[in-house]
Amino acid sequence: MSGKRASWSGSLAFVLAAAASAIGLGNLWRFPYLAAQYGGGMFIAIYLALVVTLGFTLMVTEIAVGRKTQQSPLTAYALIQRRWGFVGLLGTLIPLFITPYYCVIGGWVLYYLKAYACMAFTGVNIMGEAAANSGEVFGALISAPFAPFGYGMLFILACAAVIVLGVKNGIEKSNLVMMPILFLMALGLAVYVVTIPGTFDGIKYYLIPNLDCVSTPDGRFSLALLAKTVLGATGQMFYSLSLAMGIMITYGSYMKKTDSIERCVRRIEVFDTLIAFIAGLMIIPVVYLFAVKTGTPVKEAMNAGPGLMFVTLPKVFAMFGAAGAWIGLAFFLLVLFAAATSAISLYEACVSSLCDFLKLERKTATTFMATLIMFLSSFSALGYGAWGHIKLFGMQFLDFFDFFTNSVMMPIVAIATCVFIGWFTGPRLVIEECEAEGAKFRVKRFYSFMVKYLAPLLLTALLVSEVCRALGIKGWSI
Ligand code: PFF
Question: Structural domains in the chain?
């Protein structure tokens, strides 16, 4: 890469970009489900406590490492201490594994957006009037021989078009369009939902702290169940804040020295948590109402992941008659923007690493990465259909990539980062970066304690619990 390193135009642009990365499918389909199933307000309180402690520590660390070294993850760690370069390599492989499958899901969203646009403008409903066939439509889409691949490619190309334009002209400008629309639509849908008669019980279900998640069936408090809830919230926080994926290092490397890292991180956390909270208000009360109306057990209706978004919600939208098509259209546009801004950040982490390592031009690196991502995404795109018979450790490709990155690699990279900063370079490295150009870092002692002790401990517990869950060992997994 030639010349000076690119930079954001200001701290607001940086906050918006990092928040755009953080706000993604994790906020829309994971947070509401977890909050609903694990104690409502209780889960939200634990989650908030983790965001301002552990999340804060990890995000400050990554941004400071990026800004100090002016490098993306592949080369940043090695620049500080050669021996620790392997963490950078692992941290670069994570977005490289995630981007392909995230783009396949982005492709599914594109398909649903098209279906709802068609429904809204022409009245043709591919799922039937009551969305009775939503399960079959989704099943047919993901197992089709070409469609998941084709829509995934479109999504990848759209992201590539933004990346190739660069930090200021591509990422920053696209965020300026997508993020306000996303925020307004989420707010509008949530307000609409809470004013629908009959959704009050669902709102209570979501917000009122429920001690069931920390009590045994006979009503006694259980420490093991509390630990399980805390670990579940830790995993979600990790996922939602885009930590340990190389993204915050990359975005931090474009940050100006005059901007306060502490202040920016607080703002990113507020944005991300606010959207997750609003997503819950937008989704849980209507799914609850739907469950009551159709006699479906509430916990079953609130199932996680693709099932909630692509099968249950279309049924919920159909409850609203003709207006349902427009609600669906608004909802999937919102999901598309959330997924696209996150995918762009994942893609940028890969492109930037390539530029820094091989000194390539952005255009060349973007083209090379697009080709590689397309190739890798074909496994996830076809893994439910043509290649459905191939399993990795009993999992479909997409599920395997998701598990391996989120549950294994990300905790390992985060633990290694904490040990590196906490015990080898010393927290001073990050603290000094946070205080560059006279900026204030008010929580130095707290930060040092977190990065040295509490963060590695919690992250190790998370890693053990996730691996136990995958191996079917009855453990502390949520
Ligand atoms: N933080 C984003 C989200 O919540 O969706 C981005 C992201 C998280 C992408 C985790 C991929 C991933 F595995």
Answer: 11-391+425-442 (1.10.4160)
